[in-house]
Fold this protein.
Amino acid sequence: MVMRWVGGCGSIALLLVLMVGCGASDPSALDGVPGSLDEQELSGRGSLADQQAGVLGSPGSQGPLADIHFGYDAVDLGQGARDILQRNYQWLEDHPDKRVEIEGHCDDRGTIEYNLALGARRAAAAKNYLVALGVSSMRITTISYGEELPLCREVSDVCRRRNRRGHFVVFGE
Amino acid sequence: MMELEVGGMRSRAWKRLLVCCTGLCIGSVAVSPLAAQVRSTIVGPGATQYPIAVSALRTAAAESGRAEEFADLLIRDLRLSGMFRVVPRETYIERPQSSGVEASAIGFENWAVLGAQALVKGTLLESGGGIVVEVRLFDVAQRRQLSGRRYRGGAADLPRIADRFADEILAQITGERGPFDSKIAFLSTRAGRFKDVYVMRANGTDISRLTESHTLNLAPSWGPEGDMLTLTSYRDGNPDLYSVTYPGGDWKKLSSAPGLNLGGRWSPDGSSIVTTLEFDGNAEIGILDPDGSTRYRVTDHWAIDVSPTWSPDGRFIAFCSNRAGSPQIYVMKRDGRGVRRVTRVGSYNTSPSWSPKGQRIAYTSRVHGEFQVFVINVDGSGLRQVTTDGNNEDPVWSPDGRYLLYSSTQRGGAHLYLSDLSGINRVQLTQGKGSDTSPSWSSWLD
């Protein structure tokens, strides 16, 4: 099977994930790996690459910016989402060399194509809010994955809410 | 493969002999359990199944088994159609090797006494790797030939020959050609975590894998000639629209506008592709040239506009929009004007598919939290619920407009189901590991 990596740092990120997962503490044991485990390196991979590596939703892959969540079939930003976006905005202000890709995701209760459109809306809503707060729009890209990359598959409201998310993937310069 | 008509008196006087059971009849048969070789049938209402006898072909090479195999293949399609009751072979009086194949040489009383109203007989010639199948359909009571065909091809063409003649039998008996000489493409996770494209014949046989891509793939859709599919894939990181040749499996990027390039459906005349694009995070419908360049944007509305499908004459597009506050089915002209809402019942109606016969649209509607397949007339009348159990999505029509194919979880995992419009009579067409979703049904292969 052909493996395709999203982004340029896929294989390095995978090595880092393996290190974190196995509790390895000696980075120099792996050739070519930078000495410090920067969490941002891990988050530069995105949900599709995580899924391809089999680590989607694993603890080490969250990155420095928290997910926001949406109501069922909704694209509007509740107070909780706005609070998180405010903190994410602050982090981006503190790290002006970073850019971010915002992923829009849905739970499994819609149809495949409609959920892709909904995910696009969710990612755009988060981007527009950050831009309104003052982030340059050139630092933000968006992508929708619809219902295709769920963090969990249980039939429960808790799981579904987890999946209805805007996810922030940080990339360095 | 070559095909010719063969002589004898042909007549289409038997149109509509069989009351067509597509959706207007109420059946009472439960879904049959699935057998490994012979799929269950879409059983039509018992009163209107047409009794037919299918004789093994007469051949000089009986040892190859192909003479009987042809009859078995044909019988499988006739049973799957739901419109025929096949008189059992063990009751036949005439033996294929010792009886005639033309009307003047057939003892029709030998078939009438079994209750057969139609009869299939023919010959098989095998030479080298090639075969010649000559097969005829007879009206037993009138003692005459209704249709005859000669097919010339390789040994591997036998299933397709059977499918083509099954379609011809349906054309003669019901007045409308059958759907069997066509292909179904679908997405499946049967080989791993990611969805790849698979192709099979319309009767569910001969499944082959077309893509092996380890990424997200969505919305396969046949091109008009059945030799390629459009497909949305994240193989380059963005949901771009590709064409993939069939059977070659060669990819070519068609459209990579920023954001969604979701699902490409070819217009019936093959001149353009309708797709869902994205503008500032908002899904909008656009028309592409065959090479993938954007010709024009069709919708320009703040709402989500997604999942376009062509009318069979290519003049209209049905699509899903939440411009009224919730996802509903709409119809518009292909230039975007004249937008008209079709669905008025239900709060979540998506994934329209326009019948090849032109008057109906199938779609998915959320009912009590689950998805069901519905059919509605284009003018909004005649609402009919087709499915009731499990989660049922992505309905598409057979090329003859008689059947619906959709992905259903009614028996656990998602598999493809074939159903008549009543929904009562259905057959599970795929099974096994993984989930089978997003089917596309090609046009006839000729």
